[in-house]
Amino acid sequence: MKRIITLAIAAFIGLCAAQISDACTNLIVGKNASVDGSVICTYNCDGFGFASPLSYSAPGQHAPDEMIAIRRWGSDQVNYIPQADYTYAVVGLMNEKQVSIVETTWDGRKELHNPDGWLGYFTLMHLALQRSASAREAIAVMHQLVQEYGYNDTGESFAVCDKEEAWIMELIGKGPGRKGAVWVARRVPDDCISAYANSSRIRQFPQAKKADKKLGFCIVPGDCMYSADVISFAREMGYYDGPDKDFSFREAYGPLDFGAIRYCEARVWSFYRHHYDTAVMDEYLPFLNGDLSVHDDLPLWIKPSAPLSYRDIQNDMRDHYEGTALDMTADVSAGPWASPYRNQPVNYEAPDGTKMFRERPIGCQQSGMTMVCRMRSWLPDALGGITYFNMDDATTVAYVPVYCGIDRIPDPFRRENNNIMEFSEKSAFWMCNFVANMVYPRWSAMIGDLREAQNELEDYYEADQPLVEEHAAGLTAGELTEYLTGKTISYTERMMQRWDKLARLLIVKHNDQIMRPSKDGEVVPGRHTSPAYAPAFIEAVKSTTGTRYVKP
After folding, report:
1. How far is CA 67 from CA 59, 133, 180, 218, in A?
2. What are 187's strand-pairing partners?
3. pLDDT digits (tens, 9 = 90+) for 39-75
């Protein structure tokens, strides 16, 4: 009799897949583009009304007859696939070999959704992480799985990374009744950075003369992999009729419209702008406004002006276009407290029926979790792989180091402590949201206090890493697992304690919309102040009320 187990996909995997569409951001850094040789990829998992706890699946050797039960979200149907002979441990979206996979959805051709496919993108990612020791192997596993069991989601981009390489993979199904998927994967040059934000970005790509017979897909050594029928299928569907060499994956399967440009490509533009000549990047502003006469896309990757640290990337995940032509804090829509957050939908109407939109930045209030995955080849895997993680908006949380070599999840990040319907002081999600939702309405007055706590924690975590690496050098494998698990738990508890302190500070310091003095996270004696409204808001009040508030 065959053994059957349920696929151990974490709470955040099921909830993300259920709640999110077109709502995530990935940033990617090649090893020679980082200050220390790390490969880095990131993930803001965005969507209203869900929490994304941290997951853990243990490694294991499996019997030949062991099966996995896969249940699609929203369906009672159960399908069974064979288990791999051996599965690697997975913490969040990084496995014990420092392989990480993150994603962002772009929908693409609606008719290519196959409702009968067994595998959604999060199931596909998790299976690949359990079965792959490298990024290239993960891409091959994902291809094999969708070929055999079918893919039931829409267009998807994946950053597939390990301690040596970063790849970007775009994939979309073939429609009802057809298994498999068409896809292209490009290797990000080691000295470059790239990004994805809910739009297809791969256009032309290097092509091979024929498919690899063993793997069943095409390989251009060191640079590109793609499904053998990616061009022929586009021809069959009427998406393309030109020469093979000019074929563009994006134009065939995920063509851009204004929304994809302004709400999605603009996030990539802002990331690039942080790390490249700003004057050059500002030449793309007409493109972001829908004018394709000069530029009709952004580079797939760029070589940054200077190497990036993982702290740089953490701050990039908090971006709201500050200091750019799209700055969300600089006009009257930012309100009296110069807030980068907006309550209305991305698309809305003015009272006179005018069609309106708001900006969609990298940092946003609806994130269920955020992570920065850092892979380091010069350290043992258990120590070298770190996911800097927290639950809620990257802008308003402190990133907590989580080593890929742990064997249990800190309590504040566990599923049972993060009920979306019930506040709990034991929940990282709710403590982070508690603070964030105090800060959002009075941004300019309160954000300095949050930044103080955020920097305090992240500075501490960074300063502690050399000590951790020194201590870890003399440990056995078992001792290292226990040590890194203990460290991750203590880091998480430190964050929870500091955020509790911050919440208490904010309510006392800013009570009744004043601002009492504080020092080192504590309110101190002294005269309170009344912080001023943002200049743009004051000007708007003056222009719309005439002389009503003008002193005689």
Report:
1. 16, 21, 21, 30
2. 167
3. 999 999 998 888 899 999 999 999 999 999 988 766 7
